[in-house]
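Sorry to interrupt, but I need a hand with the structure work. I would like you to pick a protein and set down its sequence and fold. Please put the record directly below this note.
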Amino acid sequence: MIKPVVRAAFVAPFLLSALPVSAQDVPSIGAVLSNYADVAEAGYADSLATAKILQGAIDKLIAKPTDTNLAAARAAWIAARVPYQQTEAFRFGNKIVDDWEGKVNAWPLDEGLIDYVDSSYGLDNPENPLFTANVIASKSIMIGGEAVDLSTITKAVLAEKLQEAGGVEANVATGYHAIEFLLWGQDLNGTDAGAGIRRATDFDTKNCTGGNCDRRAAYVKAVTDLLVDDLVWMAGQWGKDGDARKAVTVAKGNAGLKTIFTGLGSLSYGELAGERMKLGLLLHDPEEEQDCFSDNTHNSHYFDVIGIRNVYLGTYKRIDGNEVKGPSVSDLVKAKSPRTDAAVRKALDATVEKMAALRARAEKVERYDQMIGQGNDEGNAIVQASTDSLIAQAKEFERAMAVFELGPAQFEGSDSLDDPSKVTTTKQ
C-alpha cells in the first residue's frame, strides 16, 4: 500500500498536530509503560541524591550550629523538593507509592507534637490528644493509654511510634515537612511577609536556645536519615527488578494506561487544584499551604505541574542535566486522536504558564500565603487562575481516557471543588 504524501508547504502550521500518525511510528503500550517506569526511577533516584545532600548539610549544622550552616541546610531542603515534587505524578494510581507516600510528604502537621510552639498555637485540640506533646522536650509520652519511651530519639521511634500516632493524620513525625519545621520553625506571620525564624542556636548544645538542643539535633538527624532510607527503598521499587515497575509494566490490557491517567488526573484535580489550592482560597488561611514553614509552596506547586507534563510526554530532565526520554502516553493518544493529544498538550502548557506566573509573583511580589489572604484580590486571582487551569487539564485527561475506552475516570476529588459548602472551618 502506497502511503499518502502530505506536502508541508500546503499544511498550515496549526494543523500539523492534527495529522494522522503512521502505524509504524506508534509505540507499543509496553514500551510506553517501560519508559514511564524509567522516568519514575530517575525521579526517585534524584530525590534520593538531593536528600543525601540535605543529610550532609544537616550533619554540618549539628556539628557547627551557625547561621551559615542553617542557611545551607535550608537551601538543601528547598533543592531536595525539586525532584521529589515531580514524582508526585506517580501517586494515586500506583498502590506501592500511595501506601508509602505518607511517610515522606504527609501534611499538614501539628507541629506541637514535635517541638516547642508559640502560645498562640493553643494548649489542646479535642481531635488530637498529642497536639502539644512536644517530643523533643519529653522523655516519655502516653499514646492510647500506653507509655512510649522517648529517652532516645531514633528512626524506629519516629516511624513506628510517632508517625500518625493515635491514628491522627496530623501527627506527622517523619518526612520532608517534619524536617522543614525543624529547620524553619513556626511561621507566625499570618498573611504578612516572612517565613519561620528558627535560630541556629536551637541546635547548639553549648549556647542553647529553645531548650533541649541535644534532642532537637537528634530528632533532625534521625528524621533526615529516615527520609534517605525511605527514598532508597522507593528508588529500588522502580529499578529493574522493583515491584512498582513490575506492577505497572505487566498490567494486562490497558490497565497500565489507566494507572497513568488516574495519577495525572487525581494530582491535577482533587489534590493540587482542590486540597492544596482551592481550599486555601476558600479559607484564606495561611496554614493551607504545603510548605508553610519555609514559604516554598510556589515551587512545590510549580514542580508538581512540571511532573504531570513530564509523565504525559514521557520525559524527565535529571539534576545532572541528562534527559530521560522515550515512548509516551502522548504518542499513543496522538495515534488514535491527534486533536485530543493536541488539546491535552495545550492544557498542560497553559497550566505550566499559569503556575510559572504564580511562581514569579511569589519570588518578586509576595509569597503564596499572602496571595491567598483575605482581601488580596490580585493574589487570589493568580491562585484561582492556576486552579482553573488544573481543572481544565484534568478534563482533557478524561477525554484522553475516553479515546482508549478506559471507563469512567476515577480521579481524587475534593470538597473544596465538589461541595464547597462542607468547607466551613479553618484547621488548627
